[in-house]
Amino acid sequence: MKTFLIYRDRDFDLQRKLPVNEKALTQDLELNTLFNAMALGDKFLFEVARKVVLSSMSDLDAILYRQSILKDCLKNSLIVKDMYNIAVESIEIEKKHYLSFFSFKYPSSILHRSIGLLQLFVGILKKLRGIADSHADKFESEGFIRFFAMLQKELTDEYFLHIQEHLKELKFREGVLISGELGKGNKGLHYLLHKVQDKKQSWIERLFNRKTPDYTVYIHERDEAGARALGELKDRGINTVANALAQSADHVLDFFTMLRTELAFYVGCLNLQETLVQKGEPIAFPLPVAANARKSSFKGLYDVCLSLTIEGKVVGNDVNADDKDLVMITGANQGGKSIFLRAIGLSQLMMQCGMFAPAEAFCANVCNGLFTHYKREEDTSMKSGKLDEELRRMSDIIDNISENSMILFNESFAATNEREGSEIARQIIYALLEKHIKVFFVTHLYELAHGLYEQRLESATFLRAERQADGSRTFKLTEGEPLQTSFGKDLYNRIFSNAG
C-alpha cells in the first residue's frame, strides 16, 4: 500500500540530500523560526518540515497537487490529525513490542513476535478503514481521494477475516507438522512445513481415511538436549514461514511509517495556520506560474517569521513586479527593507513546497533554485577581509545557480568604498540578468541604485522604504527613485533623545 500524499508518483524520502545552500537559506531567512512554529516542540515534525520546505519543487502540477491536499487538511484538520495519531500509535506499538523480546535470532521467536505485531496492526488498520468509510466524501483532492479508495479496496472485511484465520493457524495450537529427508551422515535435509490435518472430521471419515505410517518419539521431561534438538527441528521447519510473516509485518510498518512522515508535513502546516489565524494574520494559497515567466505580484505580503516572534501583527506590502527581472530596494534605515526581502524568500519557498503564503494574495513564477547573499559578521580569525569573504560566497553561488533561479542580496558588497562596491555589484547584477536569473537587491549604495535607475531598464523596478515627514517609518515599500540619504540621522535623534 502507498500513501502518495507528498508526491503523486513516489514516496517522500526523509533521507534525501538538501540543496548545497541550505545552511545559508536557514540562516538568512531564519527558517528555524518557521520550522519551530510548525513542530510545536516535536523533533520529528521539525525534521519533516525542514526537509519538505527546503526540497522545494519547480513542477507546477506537483505544487498544485500538494496544495489541493493541504486545502483538504485545512477543511478536515481533526480527521487528518486523527490519522496522524493512528500512524504514530502503530510505530510506538512496534517499538514496545520489539523491546519486549531479548532476541529474535530464532524462527520461533520471530514468528511469535510477528503474529502479535500483525494482530495489533490489524486493529489499527481497521481504524484507518473506518475513517475512510466515514469521512472519504469530505475530501476533494486527488491525493486523498486515491488514498481513501486504496484503503477501502485493500482493507476489506474479507481481507481482515483472511488475515485473522492465517494468524490463528500460525500459532500452531494443534502442533507443527514438518517433513524432512535424511542426507549424508543422517543429516536432516529439505525440511518442509505442512498444513495440520483438519480434526473436525466425522468418525466415519476418520475410520476410512487412509493414514500414512507414523512413529512417535517421547522425550523425557528432563532431557534438555533432546528438547533443544526438537526445538531446532521445529525452527528449521517454520523458518520460511517466520521470515515471510516478519516481512509482512515490516511491510505494514513501512506503510504506517510513510503515512506518519507524509502527514507530518500537513500537521506542521496546520500548526502554523492555527498560530497565524489566532494572531489575525492572513494566509492565501499562491498562484504559481512557469519558471520562464516573470511574476511577482502580491497583496499584504508579510514576514511570517517576524510575525511568529512578536505579539502584534506585521505590516504587509502590496507590490506588482510582474515582467521584472530586477527589484532594487532602497530607502530609510530600519524601514522594513530586510524584512521585506526575507518575506520574499520565505513566501517563495512556502509556495514551492505546496504551502500557503503569508499574504492576502500571492502570485509568482517558480524558480529553479533560491539563493541568498547576505552580509556576514567579520571573520574573527582575520584570515580574510569582509569583501574577500563576500566574493568567495558569491563564487560558490555562481557555481551552483542556474537559469530561472532567484537570488536575494542584502547589503552586499558594502564592505569596501561605495564606488568599488557599486561597480562590483553592478557587474554581478548584469551577469545574472543575462543568464535570466531573478534578482532582489537591498542596498544603501546610492551610486549603484541610482546608476541602475538612470538606465531606465524595462525589466527593473525600484522600491523605496517609506519615511514620514516626522522621521517615523511606516514599514511600507512604494515605487520610487533611490534617494541619496538613508536618514541615519533619524535613528541618531531617536536613540539619543530617548537616552536623555
From TrEMBL:
<keyword id="KW-0238">DNA-binding</keyword>
<keyword id="KW-0547">Nucleotide-binding</keyword>
<dbReference type="GO" id="GO:0030983">
    <property type="term" value="F:mismatched DNA binding"/>
</dbReference>
<protein>
    <submittedName>
        <fullName>DNA mismatch repair protein MutS</fullName>
    </submittedName>
</protein>
<dbReference type="GO" id="GO:0006298">
    <property type="term" value="P:mismatch repair"/>
</dbReference>
<keyword id="KW-0067">ATP-binding</keyword>
<dbReference type="Pfam" id="PF00488">
    <property type="entry name" value="MutS_V"/>
</dbReference>
<dbReference type="InterPro" id="IPR000432">
    <property type="entry name" value="DNA_mismatch_repair_MutS_C"/>
</dbReference>
<dbReference type="InterPro" id="IPR027417">
    <property type="entry name" value="P-loop_NTPase"/>
</dbReference>
<dbReference type="GO" id="GO:0140664">
    <property type="term" value="F:ATP-dependent DNA damage sensor activity"/>
</dbReference>
<dbReference type="GO" id="GO:0005524">
    <property type="term" value="F:ATP binding"/>
</dbReference>
<dbReference type="GO" id="GO:0005829">
    <property type="term" value="C:cytosol"/>
</dbReference>
<feature type="domain" description="DNA mismatch repair proteins mutS family">
    <location>
        <begin position="324"/>
        <end position="500"/>
    </location>
</feature>
<dbReference type="InterPro" id="IPR045076">
    <property type="entry name" value="MutS"/>
</dbReference>
